[in-house]
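re: ur question from yesterday

yeah so i grabbed the chain u mentioned. its 140 aa long if i counted rite. heres the sequnce exactly as i have it in my notes:
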Amino acid sequence: MARGKSKRTYVRQANVEAQVFDWGRLWWLSEPRVTAAEKFSAGIVQLEPGKGHTRHNHPGCEEILFVLTGTGRQVVDVAGESREQVIGPGVLVHIPPDCYHSTVNVGSEPMRILAIYAPPGPEAELRRMKGVTIEPPEEP
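ran it thru and got these structure tokens back, copy pasting raw so excuse formatting
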């Protein structure tokens, strides 16, 4: 924990704000603002059926996705090769720094993913994106 900062040790989804987009929602359970984490951020991504993240990257940031529920089509561009796969519960996706990637829910139910960034930072950029709505925590 960062020196001099008092943040949460135990966090539930209801304790944090929701970032709402036209494709779904994000709840950052661990980030500098919530837990004072310095080396990574972690949150739950919910993609609605037929929706997802278009091709993008996170410069200087490594990402892990772990599918909790639902089915999606994942594309990761690594070393000039586009790697595509249908993913579902129990699948972990490693996205190296700077690599372009996309995730689209191809199922009929919401897809939920644990997302981890190292180092933190992309979650703050998402908060400032055009079109995002911030919903306050249900249980601060």
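noticed a couple things. The chain has a mean pLDDT of 94. also The longest helix spans residues 122-127.
anyway ttyl
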